[in-house]
């Protein structure tokens, strides 16, 4: 019993430091993601589920620099802990296709770790790849999938938001 009490006292002394460290890390991530100037977000078109729901089909956005960008995620509705097929198409633009694109999947309500699959060019303006989203402790999670040409956050111009739910 003495070892258990000693362990509990040690945890009680460390717990405030652990919480402070987690809060500091969360603040750092939030500041990096949401403060103006760091990610070019002032020029990013955001496609919300109210505009188009990726759980129901492909979603198209008008790219600020020309043309349309369409993202499709299958299977639908978008599940957690299951391999997802990602297809991105950019048509009607100037024709300068990056060699590859990353999709940065970020949890909107909470940090969900680093999720940035690479989509390879499979044709003019066409990209494909796969990923798996982690499960969330809440019943539903809003995700922001930001298109990053060749991984360049400053070049991001389109973001798609969608919700995953445990009952999907």
Topology order in helix (H) and strand (E) letters:
HEEEEEEEEE
* Uncertain ranges: 33-41
What's the alpha carbon Rg, rounded to whole Å? 19 Å
Our estimate of the beta-strand percent is 35-45%
Largest sheet: 9 strands, mixed
By secondary-structure content and strand pairing, the structural class works out as alpha+beta
Distance between the termini: 45 Å
| Helix count, DSSP H or I runs of 4 or more residues | 1
How helix-rich are the residues, as a percent range?
A: 10-25%
Could you give the count of β-strands?
9
How would you describe the shape? elongated
What value does the average pLDDT take? 84
Strand order of the largest sheet: 1-9-8-5-6-7-4-3-2
Descriptive report:
With 168 residues, the chain is α+β, with helices and mostly antiparallel strands. The protein is built from one helix and nine strands, in the order αβββββββββ. It has one helix at residues 2-34; strands spanning 45-47, 59-62, 68-74, 83-91, 100-107, 118-123, 126-132, 140-149, 158-165. It has a nine-stranded mixed β-sheet with strand order 1-9-8-5-6-7-4-3-2, with no helix packed on it.
